[in-house]
């Protein structure tokens, strides 16, 4: 396996984050960021610093970014200024993905490969949470499109409008909210409705 590949090789690949968080699909590449998009009916655009990449495993592009950071820090309508994302790059040397070190003040800093803006380190294949389940809750995910979805406390939240790599996309009726829910949180499908392991109170965490 080659130790690196160019960034343009990951366009249209899925970006994943900490705890297998869905960071969207890679749409294009900037100088020091990548652009991902999430959503079907309502699309959200994210500009993620290249300097936070962990690596590409041949299937997914992995970042040290959480879904909360994605929403609160990297969601935007226009590209960031060069100096804005420059703070994520501390220079550094060596080969491989981003490494984290502790400064004398006890703060965590980043050290990145000097050519990370041009190419990505390859890493060993990482299984998503959904892939690690030995017995999937749904045998054929295509069958649940347009089916109703209920939470763990039996509350209806909307219909499945699409299935992506590792997630289902649910659009609510009325408010038209859209949710990206990891497949690992699907408890079962009874042929008519999809049932989640998540309570209604947790749904805001998956709203996009």
Can you give a write-up of this model?
The chain is mainly beta and 208 residues long. It has 2 domains: 4-126, SH3 type barrels; 131-206, SH3 type barrels, CATH 2.30.30. It has helices at residues 67-73, 82-86, 129-132; strands at residues 4-6, 14-16, 22-29, 33-38, 44-49, 53-56, 60-63, 99-102, 108-111, 119-121, 148-150, 156-164, 167-171, 178-182, 186-189, 193-196. The strands form 4 sheets. The chain has a 6-stranded mixed beta sheet with strand order 5-4-3-2-7-6. Strands 14-13-12-11-16-15 form a 6-stranded mixed beta sheet, with no helix packed on it. A two-stranded antiparallel sheet has the order 1-10. β4 and β5 form a beta hairpin. The model is unreliable at 92-111 (pLDDT under 50).
